[in-house]
Amino acid sequence: MIRQTTAALLAACIFALTPALASPVAAPDATTIAAARDKVLPVVVSIMVVREDFRQGEPVLSVSSGSGTVVTPEGHIATNAHVTQSGRSFRVVFADGRELPARLVGADTLSDLAVLQALPPAPEVFAHARFADEPDLAPGDTVLAMGAPWGLSNSMSAGVVNNPRRLLVSLFDDEADYEDRLGADEPTGRYYAWIQHDAAIAPGNSGGPLVDLRGRIVGVNTRGMIFGGDLAFAIPGPDARDVVNALVAGGEIKRSHLGFRLRSLKGTGLEEGVLVNSVERGSAAEKAGLRAGDRILAVDGEAVTARQPVEVPALQRRIAELPVGAEVTLRVAHADGRRDVRLRTRAQPEDRGEERAFAPFGASLAELTAAMGRRRNLEGERGLLVTGLRPGGPAAIARPALSEGDLLLSVDGQPVPDHAALEAAAGQPPAGGKARVLEFRRGAERRIALLVPVHGDQLRVPLPELPKAWAGVEVQPITSSLARELELGGAGFRITRVYPGSPLAAAGAKVGDLLAAIDGVPLRAANDSSDDPFHQRVRDIAPGTRVRVDALRAGKALAFDAPLVEAPANTASLRTLALASLRIQTRELGFYDRAARQLPAGQRGVHIDGVESGGPAGLAHLQRGDIIVRLGEREVVDLASLQAALDAALAGGNGRVIPVQVLRGPETRILYLERYWLTETP
C-alpha cells in the first residue's frame, strides 16, 4: 500500500515553487543500474496481508498487499507499519515465486515501519540486502524503487532524488498541524524528514526499498500520489535501519516522552532555540511551568536550534531517545527571562487503543488512550469509544440509540475501561434475557441507555407471508398510445418471459402474446415502464382460482384458461446463514435463482450472497452468486447440509485443502479451501 494524504497533494506546491538545488547529472549506464538492481531485487518480497477492519460495527476481512526487503540472514523483512496494520495473517512471495507464511515481529506506527519474519518449513539462511549507514543522498542522485505496485511483483523503476530532507508542509501550511494531518489517531513521521524522489511508485510499493547505485537501501518507500508517479516519499535508510534493528531485537520501540511538542522558529524573527508548540494538560512539563511559546535553548547543556520545520524531527527524536525515567534539564527562555527546567521522562504513551467488535452489542469499540482523549476533550476519562454500529443491531436500536463517537463508561454499573472489562461485564447472556443498562458520555453529557444484547450466531428465518397468486409470466406494459404506434391491435401487457411449468405456460401462452383482460376486466397499463398493475391484479385473486385471460397473438384474439397457483418465494423470503468460519453469507436456493440461470427445477445447492475477500472463502476465490453444490466429500443441498459438510471436512483433517464445487454462470468449477486459512483467520 501507499498512503495517500492531503499533505502529499499540498507538497506538490512545494515541488513546483522550490528552485533547482543541483545541476542535472549524467544518466548512469545500464551496467551500473543492473549491478545495483541485482544486489537488492532478488531479496525484495511481495506481502499479502489478510487484515481485519471494522465497518458498521462488524469485523470485515479483506486482502491487501505491500512490499518488503529481506534484511537479515534469519529472514527478517523490513516494510511499513501501515502495510501490516490490522493484519491477522501474512504471506510473503519471493522473487523466485516461493511463497512462505510470515509472522509479525513488531510494528512502530510513529515511524511507519514494521518487521515480518518468513517462516520456512526448515531452518535456512536467507540472502539479504543492507541499509545505508549514512544519509549521504544529494538532489539529482539516481535511485531505484523496487516492490510490487498493484501487487505486481519484481517491479523496478528509476528516478532521481528531488530533495533528501522533505517535510510535507507547504508554504501555506501551519507546521503545528503536520503530525495530526498525517494520521488523526496514529501520527507518523515525527522523528525524520522524508526523501522526496520521482521514481514511479504506486499502491503496493509501500514498504519496498529505495536503492542507490551502490546497491544500498537508502530509503523505504512509504507515500506517493495515486494519480502520478512523479512525487514519492521514502523514510531515510539510516533512520529505518535503527528502527528495524530495534524491532528485530525486542519487538517494540521504547521512547521517552516529556509532555510537550515543538515547532521551528520560522516566521518569528528569532535565531536561537526551538519553540514549545503545545503542552499537555496535567503533564510534568505543565507542572514545571513550561508553556506554549517558551523557547528551549539547550537540552542537558547542549544547545539546540530549529530555524526551519525540517529541523524539528531530529530534535524530537533526540528527546525520544533519552532513557525512560531519566532526568533531563532544559534551558528555557520565556517572557520573564531564562531558567532551567528539570523534568523526568516517562514512556511514550500509545496514540491509539486497540479496536475490536463486540458482537452482543453489534458495535465496534476502541480503547480510549490519553492521546485520543485529549483530541476529543475527554481527558481523564476511561472507557471504550464507539467506532461503528451494525444497522439494526442492539446498539443501534438501544433506548436511546448509541452513536459513533460515544464513550461507553459502564455496563450494569461495572466500569468498562478496556475490552477485557467489557467481556467480563457483558460477554454472557443476562439472566432472564434482561436488558443491559449502559452509561455513556456524549459530548459533555453523561447518559444512560437500555440495550438488549444478542448472543451467538443465528439462522435468519423470515416471517411467513400470506400466499399470493402467480400466473408465471413476466410482462411489459403497453399503453394505448404505444399500441397504436406499434400497430398491436390493443393495449395491455406483453409477455416477455414464460416460466416453464407455470399456469400460463401450461395453458399455451408464449412470449409476445398481449394480455388484455382477466375474467373480462381489462388490463390497463399506467405508463410504459411499470408492470405493477398486472401483477397486482393477479395477486388480488386467491391462489387456486381458475381464471380466463384474454389475449392477442399476432393481432388475433385468443383466451387462456388457467388455475393460478401460489407464488414461489422471493429472495427476501428465503432463510439465510452466516458461516463465521468461512466468512460468507449464504441462503437457500430459490425458484427465481434456478429460473435466472436456467437450471433444472430440481437443482439443489446453497447460494452465496456475500464473501469477505480476506476470509477463507474469499482466499479460495469463491464469489457472490456462486452456488455451492459440494464441499469436501459431501453433497450440499441446503443450509443444514452445508454446515454438516463443513463440519465433516474440518473433522476429517485429511489433506492440505478442502475441495468446493460450485456452479458459476454456465460452468461447474472446483475451488480449494486451504485448511490453514480456517485456523489462522478469525
UniProtKB/TrEMBL annotation:
Cited SMART domains: PDZ
Pfam families registered for this protein in UniProt: PDZ (PF00595), PDZ_6 (PF17820), Trypsin_2 (PF13365)
Keywords from the UniProt entry: Hydrolase, Protease, Serine protease, Signal
SUPFAM superfamilies: PDZ domain-like, Trypsin-like serine proteases
Keyword Signal: yes
Keyword Electron transport annotated: no
Ranges where the PDZ domain occurs: 247-304, 344-443, 460-524
Example GO molecular function: serine-type endopeptidase activity
Residues of the signal peptide: 1-22
Highest taxon of the lineage: Bacteria
Xref: InterPro entries: PDZ, PDZ_6, PDZ_sf, Peptidase_S1_PA, Peptidase_S1_PA_chymotrypsin, Peptidase_S1C
GO biological process: proteolysis
Annotated family: Belongs to the peptidase S1C family.
Protein name per the record: PDZ domain-containing protein
